[in-house]
Design a protein that fits this description.
Layout: H1 28-35, E1 51-54, H2 64-72, E2 77-78, H3 79-86, H4 90-103, E3 106-109, H5 120-132
Antiparallel strand pairs: 1-2, 1-3
Helix pairs in contact: 3-4
Length: 133
């Protein structure tokens, strides 16, 4: 059994879709121009939480995006933060960082991993503190 369908008494006509307004649009070709040709190149194994640190100042011949990456990495930043600050997709940032890593301008560091097993003395101190309450 199918449920009854409702009908409007006076159906409204849908307005025609508005034409696209001229203005700034993000074009995918620009991202390819930023990264260059990827033929034969392998990306570095970068994660969203991999920390990137600059090792040198940006060379004068570097593109604005690469120079911005190097300047931002004066203090350690994750790849996700760099992607957000530059408003670029993660994949584009990884390609740019791979080029900077091979040139030796930046260094990638693994994030600090906390211990899988907590320190026994710390757990005992917390337990004794809770028992005193």
């Amino acid at each position: 059994m199918t449920p009854p369908q409702r009908r409007r008494r006076h159906p409204k006509e849908q307005p025609p879709p508005e034409p696209l307004k001229p203005g700034p649009r993000k074009e995918p070709e620009r991202l390819y121009v930023l990264t260059g040709s990827e033929e034969g190149r392998e990306r570095a194994a970068l994660d969203l939480v991999t920390l990137i640190v600059a090792r040198a100042d940006p060379p004068p011949s570097s593109t604005p995006e690469r120079a911005a990456l190097i300047r931002l990495c004066a203090a350690p930043l994750s790849v996700a933060e760099l992607s957000a600050y530059l408003n670029l997709p993660f994949s584009v940032v990884t390609v740019l960082l791979t080029e900077l890593l091979t040139a030796g301008l930046v260094q990638a560091r693994a994030p600090i991993v906390r211990q899988a097993i907590a320190d026994r003395s710390l757990l005992e101190a917390v337990m004794h503190g809770l028992q005193k309450l």
